[in-house]
Design brief:
Elements (H helix, E strand, L loop, with lengths): L1 H21 L11 H7 L2 E13 L10 E13 L7 E5 L15 E6 L13 E3 L5 H15 L1
Antiparallel strand pairs: 1-2, 1-4, 2-3, 4-5
Length: 148
């Protein structure tokens, strides 16, 4: 019984470590600065997610589950609002670089592609309370970058 339990624990740790690495920067790559993320993004906005639904992947995206979120824009910091106020992303899961799409939550979104795809490495973040200290600090930095 102990060997079986040890096997399960070791298997879990191996899978967890693999998933953690799957969406990490390599050790010799520095974390992008706020300015670098700002410069790379086509659109940066603050919005509330009002609706989430599973969708079929567009041609060429492979066969993995996607979700589409409908947004209520709060503030546009750069670029143009996404068509139909909709963004897409993979169904949230460990190691797939996604952030959870949850109706009622607020988001700072960095969009850079034609599909308005949301991924964590771009800088996008989900917030339960956009008025909190951390999101307000991030917004102050983005607003300063937008004025440059």
């Amino acid at each position: 019984m102990r060997y079986r339990m040890a096997f399960y624990v070791a298997s879990f740790l191996f899978v967890a470590a693999a998933n953690a690495w799957a969406c990490s920067l390599s050790p010799d790559t520095p974390e992008p600065t706020a300015k670098e993320r700002f410069d790379r993004a086509r659109t940066i906005l603050v919005a509330r997610m009002t609706k989430v639904e599973k969708i079929e992947a567009p041609e060429g995206f492979g066969n993995f589950p996607l979700v589409e979120g409908t947004l209520q824009p709060i503030e546009l910091l750069k670029g143009e609002l996404p068509a139909g106020n909709k963004v897409r992303g993979p169904v949230y899961g460990p190691g797939n670089c996604s952030i959870p799409f949850i109706a009622g939550w607020d988001y700072i979104l960095y969009l850079d592609g034609e599909y308005n795809f949301v991924l964590w490495p771009s800088g996008s973040e989900a917030y339960f309370n956009i008025e909190g200290k951390e999101p307000q600090e991030a917004l102050a930095e983005l607003r300063a970058l937008a004025k440059q």
